[in-house]
Design brief:
This is Nucleotidyltransferase domain-containing protein. The chain contains 6 helices and 4 strands; from the N terminus they run H-H-H-H-E-E-H-E-H-E. It is of the alpha+beta class. The protein has a single domain, classed as Beta Polymerase, domain 2. A 4-stranded mixed sheet has the order 3-2-1-4, with helices on both faces. Helix 1 packs across helix 5 and helix 4 packs across helix 5. It is globular and about 50 Å long. The chain starts with a helix and ends with a strand.
Length: 157
Amino acid sequence: MELLADYLGARHDEDVARLRRVLALRAMVATGMSQREIATALGISQPAVSQQLRTASDLSSVHPEKLIEAAAPVLRRLAEDAGYGRLAVFGSVARRQAGQESDIDLLVEAPEGTSSFEFIRFKQLLERVLGRQIDLVESGGLKPRLDDDIRREAVLL
């Protein structure tokens, strides 16, 4: 049975890697790269980029836990590039209790002086990449007790 577990683990890893590639493509598009620029950078044709984006246009069927597992490196890079720190997931996804329809709750440290408009733009960027709405909470932006509860269960990406 250990060999079966090894096989299933490898299949899971393949699925996550395939999903991560799609999320990276979506992130490149969401940050303003054209399909032609992406194709040139990756050494593939523009139609190949277009095909990959089309086949992954709907991520709603992807379980939230798997989506976050695959997206973590991409989301960390986007946060870092935008000056945000310590991106974490909390709620049912962090507790590994998420259902197919569960929402995704993220906690982030915003750069000092971030306006509400900039914060909303960053949230929208993450939503475009993930293909679904998220709840994005600024660390320290809630009532102290609630903030403490969220920080306690948060899992860094």
